[in-house]
Amino acid sequence: MSSLSDGLQDGYALEFRATTYRLPSGAPLISGLNLYVARGETLVLLGRSGSGKTTTLKLINRLLEPTEGEILVAGRPIESWDPIQLRRGIGYVIQDAGLFPHWTVERNVGLVPRLEGWPEERIQARVREMLSLVGLPPEEFVKRRPSGLSGGQKQRVGVARALAADPPILLMDEPFAALDPITRADLQKEFRALALRLRKSIVFVTHDVREALFLATRIALLDQGRLVGVYAPAEFLKASEPEIHAFAASLESGGGHEGVQ
Amino acid sequence: MNWYEFLLRNRSEVFERSIEHIWLVGASMAISLCIGLPLGVALVRRSKLQRWVIGAANVVQTIPSLALFGFLIPVPWIGGVGASTAIVALSLYALLPILQNTVTGIAQVDPAVTESARGMGMTPRQVLWQVQLPLAAPVLLAGVRVATVLCIGVTTIAAAIGAGGLGVFIFRGVAMVNNQVILAGAIPAACLAIAADLGLGFFQRSIARR
Fold first, then answer.
1. Mean pLDDT of chain B
2. Which of B118, B121, B210 sits opposite A112 (nearest CB)?
3. Strands A42-46, A201-206: parallel, antiparallel or unpaired by DSSP?
4. Do A100 and B110 touch (CB under 8 A)?
5. Domain B3-209 belongs to what architecture?
6. Where are the domains of chain B?
7. Which of A182, A238, B108, B193 lies 20 to 30 A from B175 at CA?
8. ipTM
9. pTM above 0.80, yes or no
């Protein structure tokens, strides 16, 4: 953990070098990906369903192993990290939050610190700090179960859990996609403020252009497992690639993606 | 003389046979759990093998119990006349519901939950013990409940190979063409089954509520 933070003092947080991931059948889900994530930036992976966004994320926390090419984490080849230690140094938030339904909010948020063997009073303090950070009054929420939370509250708890052990890297897989438009807009705003403040290296997966434009330091556009290009948000809609025109059109028509302006 | 007078008059033997019965069921269930739980866990991710093993357990289940007891008598080591043969056969019967429910119980755990558990850095063992098994517990217990009730019923037949239990009264009653004696075995066995079903059902609900 500390070594993952130490390794991030300079250089890129993450780097893909000609990375390919194939299914056992041989079909590639990601082909020849070259991409880096700078320290403290929010890189948004944008693409349609099946473009390889989630696969890319799972390669970072070694839920999947690349078939070809290299991945560097904090400048070191990913295979040189112990997968368990690596994952504890990388926060992970997924669409349905993935909270443990049989645990209280307190236990859910304290998961990684507890796995890391923090002393109990430090865990308690950290859990409360994290809940306040994501806008949930701790005394009201610690004893509740995920089943008693709204969709937005679950995602907030999910973010609190991912941040609890203070990981230098954060992976977010369409965390706000299942929320209603108003809650989503609230969480996007708060998350942007949080990202700017915490200076984590964040990889954020979405299919929503508005969300990408709002949150990204840079946008990486994926299409059918290939990287189309990496753009600054201001340049994204002006770029000439045909894949971008499809996204721009979805933006003009409203496209069903109600995000933040 | 009706059945409960018979039962009262022979209460010490009825009690003894009930204890024997409970012991046969308990030992068989313990063995079945020791095999079924780890086997079920191991089979969750191996769908091909899973079909074969559950298929085999299914076949065992279709063998008439009296025939299975009979088949086992000549088998060396485990066979012979008496309780140990009965326990082997009963364990085989109880295996299917336990195996089946272990596999389904773990398979029905939301994949988002297990994946985030792995993604947060839990070891496979921690994922199993802290996430999968607790979340599978209600389904798993339903399997134990079915297996126990089944086992209490089948154990009455184990008396045919000299294993004892409440079946002793039933076989004696059949031989004597005496319904009172049959009922003196059948009614306590039914009571045991109902008690086990209610007890485990209560436990199952209290686990699910947690």
1. 87
2. B121
3. parallel
4. no
5. Orthogonal Bundle (1.10)
6. 3-209
7. B193
8. 0.83
9. yes
